[in-house]
Amino acid sequence: MGKKVARAAKLRTRTLKVKTAGMPRAGYSVLVGSGLIESSFEGLIGKGQKGGKGGGGRALVVVDAKIPRETIEPLIRNLDRAGVRWAAKVVTASEADKSLSTLEATLIEAARLRLERGDLIIAVGGGIVTDLAGFAAGIYRRGVRIVQCPTTLLAMVDAAVGGKTAANLSVPGEDGKAGLLKNAVGVFHQPARVVCDVASLRSLPLRELKSGLAECFKHGLLSGGLGDRALLAWTEKRCDDFLAQSGAALAELVARNVAVKARVVQADEREESTKPDGGRMMLNLGHTFAHAIETLPGLAWKDPAQGVQMVGPLKHGEAVGVGLVCAARVSAALKLCEKGLPARVEALLNRAGLPTRIEGLPASEQIIERMGHDKKVAAGKLRLVLPIKACRTRIRSDVPVKTIAAAIDAVRL
Ligand code: GLY
């Protein structure tokens, strides 16, 4: 666990509800505010609570090694005070460590603590930790409850909400070298509660925050039919406040984006929809392009805000931003969106200091070939989520290869 970080001013707590078909009762709450992690388990476990077994119950805290001590200590103190027996599993949050062996080590820690069905796992960290801990909770004793405490913007607005959990698989290729299949295994396991403590965003490196903003821009491009048509325009207007790490602006950003994600998940929890907008698959907007470029070595780009030369690989959110530009270009070429949308997306990414032009990309044919390995490919056809008019989406499986190639060429430096 890492360095000290000053506390942010207390914000009012917003509560959003997520109700899915897989959760027959009241669904779960997503809390957005500050200073919330320490009480994240309250009401779910502890003296006199259901699952408390007359004593305090047990909790396994799965925590990212980079989380500051000050974030986790108040939680531990409160668990002690409530008589909850706890253990901590510290996880190195890297794609290589998002593995079946880390999953197994987490499950063993749960077993050593004698965690039972009424007990709790509490995950504190970014998307890698929330995905892995969620997976452990989904399969330990065929399912225990999990409280997700995402500490990055990306995990708050995406990974921790909606019940997708995952680990990567290391699979040897024909050349004998191991390749990483990202999120190749996992289960759907909705959390018991999600706690978005925006105070933790103050300790987040700016590059990480910007990366999360790309997922928010994605939500802005698809929220037209999801009760927040103004999200994209509002996000454009407040972009500087997010970059200045204003607690109030970030809390509103998280709450509005969680509300959009919740509506998508409620309508299509298991990504089974065949609607033209893609159902939950619409959240893949920009991602088919992103997955094909985010692991590529040897990329370079200029941070548009600071003029600094950066060298790849890209962070997930950075690749998503580039993917949003490509998707908007394809959409404009097919006359599905406003003519100005690609320029609007680029301008927003530039304002946020996210890359829009990349040096060192391989030939477009090679990138399209890599896009063909995406999990969303059906019957060998590339299915692209495209942003269309009025901040809505369409799934298209018939986009000419030359249109896709032209969109990729346009982000080439
Ligand atoms: N991250 C995409 C989803 O939750 O479906």
Task: Give the key terms.
single chain; 413 residues; alpha/beta; Dehydroquinate synthase-like, alpha domain; seven-stranded mixed β-sheet; 12 helices; 13 strands; globular; disordered N terminus; binds glycine
Task: Describe the secondary structure blueprint for this structure.
Elements: E1 14-18, E2 28-33, E3 58-64, H1 69-81, E4 85-91, H2 100-112, E5 120-125, H3 127-139, E6 145-150, H4 153-159, E7 167-172, E8 178-185, E9 193-197, H5 206-222, H6 231-243, H7 247-267, H8 287-293, E10 300-303, E11 308-311, H9 316-333, H10 341-351, H11 364-371, E12 384-388, E13 392-396, H12 401-409
Helix pairs in contact: 2-3, 4-5, 4-7, 5-6, 5-9, 6-7, 8-9, 8-11, 9-10, 9-12, 11-12
The chain binds glycine (GLY).
- Measure the end-to-end span: 39 Å
- In round numbers, the mean pLDDT is 92
Largest sheet: 7 strands, mixed
* CATH domain topology of the largest domain: Dehydroquinate synthase-like, alpha domain
Uncertain residue ranges: 1-6
Into which percent range does the helicity of residues fall?
25-40%
